[in-house]
Amino acid sequence: MSGPALNGIEGVVIGASAGGVQALSELLPAFPQGTAAAIFVVLHLPRDRPSLLTEVFSRKCALEVREAQDKEPVTPGTVYLAPSNYHLLVDEGPQLALSADELVHHSRPSIDVLFESAADVYRNHLLGVLLTGANEDGAEGLAAVHDAGGITVVQEPQTAQVSTMVRCAMQLRTPDLVLPLDGIAELFRAVGRDAALRTGGPLG
Predict the structure, then answer these.
(1) Would residue 4 count as lying in a domain?
(2) 202: cis peptide before it, omega within 30°?
(3) What is the residue range of 80's domain?
(4) What CA–CA distance (Å, rounded) separates 129 from 189?
């Protein structure tokens, strides 16, 4: 596909809010078996009850889907979901970290917190994707991915259930790609194929 080169992607960060469950249900299954990149997801959720997303997405995905645990080493080819009421960060190692620090843009987990921490670790080997949502969380985080040399993608505003989040990000930095969900899904398939080829893994 035209656009930025996808070779060398080791981490994928995805942020979504309102409308995000539907969007992720279409996107996460696009990663093929053998994908070597690790995938980290923040979806804004009610903070007063546990997330059921692991069960929801595990049934749909070729990759292992798990709720992130504090101090857990990052395993390639795994989808990590931020638990409710905790920020998810990527630390050196790479390993995961959970934080109960203050809300960011009224949210915990915060997309900005994940994206900024992952940009520090993965630099130009990171793909950042921002989807539908109703506030500005994720704009500064996606800018951090851009500034670190990573590839930035936003959902096409007209196709987002709520376009506020992606429009805020587009105002802060021009993304590398603006795509509808099927275009992002194709991008994820390409990332998975590239990573599998580089590691000699199976192609799903």
Answers:
(1) no
(2) no
(3) 11-196
(4) 14
Place of tokens 């275009």: 183
8 A C-beta contact, residue 97 and residue 89: yes
* Model pLDDT for residues 75-99, shown as the tens digit of each residue: 999 999 999 999 999 999 999 999 9
Q: Looking at residues 10-26, what average pLDDT do you find?
A: 96
How confident is the prediction for the chain on average, in pLDDT? 92
Enumerate the active-site residues: 17, 44, 137
Q: Give CA–CA dist 124/5, Å, rounded.
A: 11
Give me the amino acid identity at 38.
A
The domain that holds 150 is classified in CATH as 3.40.50.180
Q: Mind spelling out the 3-state secondary structure of 95-144?
A: EEEEECCCCECCECCCHHHHHHHHHHHHHHHEEEEECCCCCCCCHHHHHH
pLDDT of residue 195: 55
2 occurs within a structural domain = no
- Cα–Cα distances (Å) from 14 to 88, 132, 137, 177, 197, in that order, read 12, 11, 12, 14, 23
Does position 64 have pLDDT exceeding 60, yes or no? yes
